[in-house]
Amino acid sequence: MTAGSxxxxxxxxxxVELAALRTERSVLxxxxxxxxxxxxxxxxxxxRTSADLAALAALVDRDSSRRRxxxxxxxxxxxxxxxxxxxxxxxxxxxTRVERDQLRIDQLRWELMSHLAEEADGDGSVDEDPGQVxxxxxxxxxxxxxxxxxxxELAAYQRTVSWRLTAPLRTVRRWQLSR
Amino acid sequence: xxxxxxxxxxxxxxAVGAASRSAGGVRGVSGSLDSPAENVVVHGNVxxxxxxxxxxxxxxxxxxxxxxGAKPVRARTTLPRIDVAAVLPDLPDAVLAGYExxxxxxxAAGESREVSVxxxxxxxxxxxxxxxxxxxxxxxxxxxxxxxxxxxxxxxxSRQLLAGIQVPRDPDHxxxxxxxxxxxxxxxxxxxxxGKLLRxxxxxxxxxxxxxxxxxxxxxxxxxxxxxxxxxxVARSLPYQAYVNELALIARASGAGSVLVNTLGVxxxxxxxxxAQLPVAWVIHESFALADFELLNWGADGLDPSVRRRWQDCxxxxxxxxxxxxxxxxxxxxxxxxxxxxxxxxxxxxxxxDRAGSAEETSALRRRYGIDERAQxxxxxxxxxxRKGHAALVVAFERIRRHHPYxxxxxxxxxxxxxxHAVHRCVAERRLDxxxxxxxxxxxxxxxFQIADFFVNSSDIESLPRSIIEAxxxxxxxxxADVFGSRDLVVDGVTGWLFSPNDSNALxxxxxxxxxxxxxxxxxxxxxxxxxxxxxxxSTHYGGQYASLMRGLAAAVPAHVDSAPGGGPS
Lengths: 179, 570
What we know:
The complex is a heterodimer. By secondary structure, chain A is an all-alpha fold. Chain A has four helices and no strands. In chain A, about 90% of the residues lie in helices and about 0% in strands. In chain B, the strands form five sheets. A seven-stranded parallel beta sheet of chain B has the order 14-13-12-15-16-17-18, with helices on both faces. Chain B has a six-stranded parallel beta sheet with strand order 21-20-19-22-23-24, with helices on both faces. In chain B, strand 15 (about 255-260), helix 7 (about 265-275) and strand 16 (about 280-285) form a beta-alpha-beta unit. Residues about 1-10 and about 560-570 of chain B have low confidence and may be disordered. The chains are: A mainly alpha, B alpha/beta. The interface of A and B includes residues 135 and 177 of A.
């Protein structure tokens, strides 16, 4: 074997090896290309998913915010309604009080007039002239009639639906406060 | 300002003649509607209805006033009318036949509207009758654009000046703007609060007030600094803005971390805090509509419209609005956000009010005051003025005196005023001297609470009456007019008795209901009342709540800011 043939053999083996490497490189490049494409596809998927997630989150957030806002609006409406109911109930209470007070006033007048009339019938010690006593008796009769009428009206009122519906509330409130 | 001009008005003789005389006395309705006159122009946004009425020669039970068909408003009744008494000398009730109602009308600045007024009287026997109708025009002042421009220019200059003041803010330093240093309900409340902030909560306090008064020494003794500004005309926009600028400079230079404003009328203090960019809490004790409050303090159409606008804007811009009663809070909710409106009920120093007196001491006190030992003593305490309803109370007392021969009424709070003179006259003419004791105003009414069997509050305007809290603390059952905060303190028939305000029948029945109760029932009621308000009765909680609130406000605002958005009439 000569020196020249040795050189030729080495060059040949290097060329073979180089060719093999080039082949391998082109395969690797193709792989990389494919991987890059896959990666891009995955990235696109990921982006789409993220966008979907973000949209979903926004939707959930909007929904939750809307729900909270709806709840707040509902509560505000309920509160306004409760206040209106309370005001109506209070007005009803005032009317009832006026009726009760009138009954009691009539009773007080009746008691006073009876007392005065008794004194006038008895020893005549009351400083009333006969005309005044007659007027008092007249007022007494009117007062008694008025008392009866108002009492009937009050009894009718206490039979109304609103009075009966609010009865448990009154009971509970009294019970709570008396503890 | 007192708008009770009814005492000087001339009665209408024609209207007096409307009633007829018979053997039984005067029959029918007599009276007159003095204000508003027919087709008159009413300036401002409140219709003031003033008149007098007698029904069968006697006082009526109540009067309602309707303006433009809106919900009727109850008039204040049993007001002195010396002029009517002079015309009708044989009718003992004539001297108290006056009535008055102030009805706000919602109109914008510069607007004018024709409104109808109807007055309805309700007799003691329960009959109702329209006694007068009127038509008048309500007119509110318009904005002055030129003055507004000057004010805005001044406000801008103030902001520049304020930007140059760089003083570190101390969150433990509270600047207080208050209306007065005299002795009154709002002032005493403030003095007590400042004492608690200083002594128990480590807060420094600087107080700014328009004028000197007896409370200055007390506040300085507690350790507060007091600054007096002199009186300013807040009704006109230019002086108002000048005052706001001055207060804002004081606020920024003081180094305070937050501002506390005391009472509804001190809105210039709120405006100044906003201009100085300091957090501000505003304590509102008054249960008045703004229009009514304006009328009482500055007269009809008294505030320049731009100042009135700032007042309303301040209610919305303040960081916190603080109330003493829920009903008062509700009145102002329309101006602010609910989360910024807080109710903090005040208590009292219960250690001072311990009812330690023995039965012997109570008897001795009764003897000293000339009151029968067997008497059922009805007590009321408070500076006597028309809104307190003391004349109405005397009249109602007269109506039940025959049914309760041992009842005795004690009114503590008489002063030298036409109203108090009328109350004295009412007692004398009804021959009640031995059953009604009228006492001048006293600083310490504890001895009177000690002799009381009942406490009566007949006032038609109250937020959270301190005297009711004191009565509860003394174990005295309470009869009160059903107004604003009274409802927070008394539950009718459970912890006391309530009656409808400005209604003679209601007050009379209230007295009868209370006096009919047995000693055992009263004791139970007093015990329940004590439990009912026990959560805030003792004021030890109060200073701590305020200290936390003010520190919280100070912490929520950055220490340095450069430009101020608020301030200046808009």
